Amino acid sequence: MTINIPGYKELNLTTLLLDYNGTIATDGSISETVKHRLYNLSKDFDIYVLTADTHGTACKQCEDIPVTVHTFPVGNAADYKEEIINKLNGEKCVALGNGRNDIKMFRKAALSIAIMDTEGMCAELLFESDICVTSIEDGLDLLLNPKRIIADLRG
Asked: By the 8 A CB rule, do 68 and 48 touch?
């Protein structure tokens, strides 16, 4: 997906990186509306779910949607997410998250969207994000309707 943002920059996005708990999942479960949006976005993006899997549900919840799930130990979540985005070329990545362990990933992403949904958002993450929305549906809808991103970020 290419998005030319007047007075800002051109984004050439190929990869979508998603935090799991608090971002695409609430209390370990993904809603059908989020799954539907992810399925639609999989036509334009390679999608990765990055999670410490606090509830142990990520693989099961993601089995019917076209995403790659990466789980990792709780202790090094921020470093692991940074390592993944470095491997995937951050200049082509959009990242969505809500937690402190998303900060390093947001710093490397071409576009970062903070999600302040039911489980809240780390206040520090706001300062590392390009855009902040109040639900995962709104965050995913930005990518399904990229003119919204242009309206948010134009110079």
From this structure: yes
For residues 108 and 84, is the Cβ–Cβ distance under 8 A? no
| Chain segment 54-111, per-residue pLDDT in tens | 899 999 999 999 999 999 876 789 999 999 999 999 999 999 999 999 999 999 999 9
Q: How many residues are listed for the chain in this entry?
A: 155
Q: What's the pLDDT score for residue 74?
A: 67
- Both structure tokens of 91: 């200049």
* Three-class SS state of 97: strand
Dihedral angle at the C-alpha atoms of 132, 28, 92, 6, nearest 10 degrees?
-20
State whether residue 24 is helix, strand or coil: coil
What tokens appear for 64 in the block?
A: 């019917």
